[in-house]
Amino acid sequence: MSAETPVQSAGTFARLRRRFRDWRGTRPFWAGLFTILGGVPIAYFPYATLKLGTMSLTMATTAGAGSLIIGVLLITLGLTMWFQHATRVFAGVAAIILALVSLVVSNIGGFLIGFLLAMLGGALAVAWVPGKTEDTGMGPRAAGQGPTGEGAAEPAPESAAGEPGETHLPYGTGDGGPADGVRSEARNGGYRVG
């Protein structure tokens, strides 16, 4: 082994860390984590037995099954936020509702620990918005250049005030018909405006 040989373990760890960071950045990771962490105390405390010397303290109540169901549902919603991030709004609202129900059903929401974590996770899931994809510069719109040569669209004519007119895309009718929705989606990166 020479001094120029790279250490494999450092490269593997850095690559795994980078892959995890990329995976985490494409989904509401913290929302799912807080929701899962909120479900654990809500499900655990009603079945826990605390030993204080020779005395054992049990928190089991008649609502133990309800606490277990709420905790398991919160853990499932947290995993849903990670792996089905398209349903993040539904999962966030459901987590908030279950956290509120846990106040009454599950020992004040797992002694407020589970309640606060689940509320925070649900709020983060509702507020999370997917990031914009970076443009690689490969398309004609990326560099602000259109195609050149024969068959290329001509620039829009200028209005009387000297401002460029509306650019005419190869699709759409411009009369407010259904093709205008397609054109507005193309202008806004795939998001429908109006």
Question: How would you sum up this structure, described in words?
Answer:
This protein has helices at residues 8-25, 29-44, 64-83, 88-105, 107-111, 113-127, 178-187, and strands at residues 49-52, 55-58. It has 194 residues and is mainly α. Strand 1 and strand 2 (55-58) form a beta hairpin. The longest helix is centred in the middle third of the chain and has 20 residues, at 64-83. The N and C termini lie far apart (63 Å). Mean pLDDT is 76; it is low at 188-192.
**Beta-strand proportion:** under 5%
Please state the overall shape, judged from the principal axes of the Cα atoms.
flat
Class by SSE composition: mainly alpha
The main pleated sheet reads as:
2 strands, antiparallel
Distance between the termini: 63 Å
Low-confidence stretches: 188-192
Number of helices: 7
Biased composition (Low complexity): 142-164
Organism: Streptomyces violaceus (Streptomyces venezuelae)
Transmembrane segments: 28-47, 59-82, 89-105, 111-131
Keywords: Membrane, Transmembrane, Transmembrane helix
